[in-house]
Amino acid sequence: MTGGNNGKKGVPIHDGGCRMSGSFLRLPQVLALAGLQKSALYKRIGLGQFPRPVKLSARCAVWPEDEIRDWQKRQIDSRDNAA
Q1: What does pLDDT average to over the chain?
Q2: CATH placement of domain 22-82
Q3: Are 62 and 56 in contact (CB under 8 A)?
Q4: CA–CA distance, 19 with 64 (Å, rounded to integer)
Q5: Is residue 23 within 8 Å of residue 17, measured between CB atoms?
Q6: Could you tell me which residues come within 8 angstroms of residue 73 by beta carbon, excluding any fewer than 6 positions away?
Q7: pLDDT reading at 13 higher than 80
Q8: How far is residue 56 CA from its own chain's centroid?
Q9: Angle, vertex CA 32, rays to CA 66 and CA 27, nearest 5
Q10: Given strand 54-57, what is the order of strands in its sheet?
Q11: What's the rounded Cα separation, in Å, for the pair 17 and 6?
């Protein structure tokens, strides 16, 4: 993983053979993308309705950007299929 996060962009991550690509996002970025308040976000995590964070340390949690984008797409698909 590389540093240099200015708080506006995700932290770049390296694939390392995993399915993941893109960046790690911090909580303020996730809240902005999800359009949720922190309490609602964590409630959905607890219900299995939102991606769980990745703990990098005891005080640092991040979300893979691709998982958040997939969640957004599922919300749109759900809306479109309900019509």
Answers
A1: 85
A2: 1.10.238
A3: yes
A4: 11
A5: no
A6: none
A7: no
A8: 14
A9: 70
A10: 11-12, 23-25, 60-64, 54-57
A11: 27
> What's the CA gap between 53 and 60, in Å, rounded?
10
3-state secondary structure of 49: coil
- Own/partner long-range contacts of 69-75 (Cβ < 8 Å, ≥24 apart): 69/22, 71/34, 72/33, 72/34
16: left (phi over 0), alpha (psi -120 to 50) or beta: left
| Paired tokens of 80 | 């479109």
- In terms of residues, how long is the chain? 83
| Closest-CA residue to 49 (of 64, 61, 62, 34) | 34
pLDDT in tens, 25-58: 999 999 999 999 999 999 999 999 999 999 999 9
Query: Rounded CA gap, 11 and 37, in Å?
Result: 22
**Domain ranges across the chain:** 22-82
Give the global pTM: 0.73
Gap between the Cα atoms of 45 and 52, Å rounded: 6
